[in-house]
Amino acid sequence: MAETTDLEELRRGTDLIKRGFAQMQKGGVIMDVVNPEQARIAEDAGAVAVMALEAVPADIRKRGGVARMADPADVEEIVNEVSIPVMGKARIGHTKEAQILESVGVDMIDESEVLTPADDAYHIDKRDFTAPFVCGARNLGEALRRIEEGAAMIRTKGEAGTGDVNQAVHHQRTIKGEIRQLEGMKHEEREAYAREIEAPAELVHETAEMGRLPVVNFAAGGIATPADAALMMHHECDGIFVGSGIFGAENPPVMGEAIVEAVNNWDEPDELAEISKNLGKGMKGDANVDLPEEEKLQDRGV
Amino acid sequence: MTLQAGVVAVQGDVAEHVTAIERAAETHGRDVEVREIRESGLVPDCDFLAMPGGESTTISRLLHDDGIAPEIQDHVAAGKPLFATCAGLIVAAADTGDERVDELELLDVTVERNAFGRQKDSFEAPLDVAGLADDEPFPAVFIRAPAIADAGSAEVLATWDGRPVAVRDGPVVGTSFHPELTPDSRIHGLAFFENDEAALPASESA
């Protein structure tokens, strides 16, 4: 048997560990929850993680006003309830909310446009944290700027709280399309492209060589049914965030389980048909086309 | 002959294991075809299997729902190699003391989930692992990692802070950490190509 290795060589919070955490979430469904009971339902339904927040995006939308980080006591309760990872949302640019979430033991921080941005110009410097971050993006430039700031996972912004998958599809298609374009470019063309999309050249080259984002790429924003989740996997997402789609549905345990199974069987139409039967009413939702510009969350923090 | 490898792919870091298997096979001069296992019926054709990291509650649930679980048990009963990392190890264990995981009981160990803490406690460190190709420590990445509370009849290959974190029990090798996250595929090689207690079809030249 080998000897015990030197404990002094231990390192925490490295990029490998942060990105590795995100890699473990692949092929999974991360569910929004607002209390420990919902967290338990999500875990039982097969969620890979839960997102602890004060209100689901659909309710934040209805309620209006300033949307902030959840009460850390409530987040802590959820952390203590489940064995799967717990994520929490901090406002864009709100370093202190993020530190508080890290302090109560949140496993990943979502610097989220669903909350009211705290900073007009800057995102959180995520490299300073031990906890990994996930950030939203609508296109490749946004995604690579967030990765440069230290994000370990990218999710599409979509249009949260609408139950309309249209914008998540749009953002994922945009990111994938831009990467395909990059792959066909010569070195100097990529340099020019990096300037055009305001992204760091080094990350642009890395993305072109890998043929994908250098970190895990999830879908989020408006996913409300098993078919929606399967559609996002079809568009080459690594996994799914579901916000209001589960606990805004008539039967959350059944809907949650169905979405987990749909992600697992996204390319099996017969399975998807079975999974989609008799789930009860989904969330009502609001179509994106009916949404006034000023009510769109996706334009926050670019 | 070309070996058939399978990576259990219901959830987790599947692509990373595919790459690591291809690298290890190349090092050992073997041709390999790797497929992702998301449905029943594929495991019986596999010469060896990997169970990835991910969330053990999710993986265990989907393996049973999809009918893959008994096929993996038959695979191991036939003495074919299986390598399980982190959540894979939890699912493969005899006991986790946690009703949320339905264990496959593929190796005789008791595992404690999240034994090293939450994500902020996750760490990487060089680790001495018995039986590796050279004596260099292995770059081990522990992410919300389990520890082996009781190694039972399994052989302990590595310990961290006094706790077993890599074991071998017949054809099964399990690690608390994630060799698939690093370019070092020595442990994949150990598990699949250098395990005398596992049955692997011989290469034509052998």
TrEMBL record, chain A:
It comes from Natrialba hulunbeirensis JCM 10989. The keyword Lyase applies. The keyword Protease does not apply. PANTHER family: PYRIDOXAL 5'-PHOSPHATE SYNTHASE SUBUNIT SNZ1-RELATED. Residues 16-220 form the PdxS/SNZ N-terminal domain. This is Pyridoxal 5'-phosphate synthase subunit PdxS. In the presence of PdxT, forms a dodecamer of heterodimers. It catalyses: aldehydo-D-ribose 5-phosphate + D-glyceraldehyde 3-phosphate + L-glutamine = pyridoxal 5'-phosphate + L-glutamate + phosphate + 3 H2O + H(+). Belongs to the PdxS/SNZ family. D-glyceraldehyde 3-phosphate binds at R173. GO terms for biological process: amino acid metabolic process; pyridoxal phosphate biosynthetic process; pyridoxine biosynthetic process. InterPro entries: Aldolase_TIM (IPR013785), PdxS/SNZ (IPR001852), PdxS/SNZ_N (IPR033755), RibuloseP-bd_barrel (IPR011060). The lineage of its organism: Archaea, Methanobacteriati, Methanobacteriota, Stenosarchaea group, Halobacteria. One of its GO terms (molecular function) is pyridoxal 5'-phosphate synthase (glutamine hydrolysing) activity. Pathway: Cofactor biosynthesis; pyridoxal 5'-phosphate biosynthesis. Keywords: Lyase, Pyridoxal phosphate, Schiff base. Catalyzes the formation of pyridoxal 5'-phosphate from ribose 5-phosphate (RBP), glyceraldehyde 3-phosphate (G3P) and ammonia. The ammonia is provided by the PdxT subunit. Can also use ribulose 5-phosphate and dihydroxyacetone phosphate as substrates, resulting from enzyme-catalyzed isomerization of RBP and G3P, respectively. PROSITE patterns: PDXS_SNZ_1 (PS01235), PDXS_SNZ_2 (PS51129). Its EC number is 4.3.3.6. D-ribose 5-phosphate binds at D32, G161, G222, G243, S244. It holds the Pfam family SOR_SNZ. The active site is at K89.
Automatic annotation (TrEMBL), chain B:
Keywords: Glutamine amidotransferase, Hydrolase, Lyase, Pyridoxal phosphate, Transferase. GO terms for biological process: L-glutamine catabolic process; pyridoxal phosphate biosynthetic process; pyridoxine metabolic process. GO terms for molecular function: glutaminase activity; pyridoxal 5'-phosphate synthase (glutamine hydrolysing) activity; transferase activity. Its EC number is 4.3.3.6, 3.5.1.2. Catalyzes the hydrolysis of glutamine to glutamate and ammonia as part of the biosynthesis of pyridoxal 5'-phosphate. The resulting ammonia molecule is channeled to the active site of PdxS. GO terms for cellular component: cytosol; glutaminase complex. The active site is at C86 (nucleophile), H178 (charge relay system), E180 (charge relay system). InterPro entries: Class_I_gatase-like (IPR029062), PdxT/SNO (IPR002161). This is Pyridoxal 5'-phosphate synthase subunit PdxT. In the presence of PdxS, forms a dodecamer of heterodimers. Only shows activity in the heterodimer. It catalyses: aldehydo-D-ribose 5-phosphate + D-glyceraldehyde 3-phosphate + L-glutamine = pyridoxal 5'-phosphate + L-glutamate + phosphate + 3 H2O + H(+); L-glutamine + H2O = L-glutamate + NH4(+). L-glutamine binds at G54, E55, S56, R113, I143, R144. Signal peptide: none annotated. Pathway: Cofactor biosynthesis; pyridoxal 5'-phosphate biosynthesis. Pfam families: SNO. Belongs to the glutaminase PdxT/SNO family. The keyword Hydrolase applies. It comes from Natrialba hulunbeirensis JCM 10989.
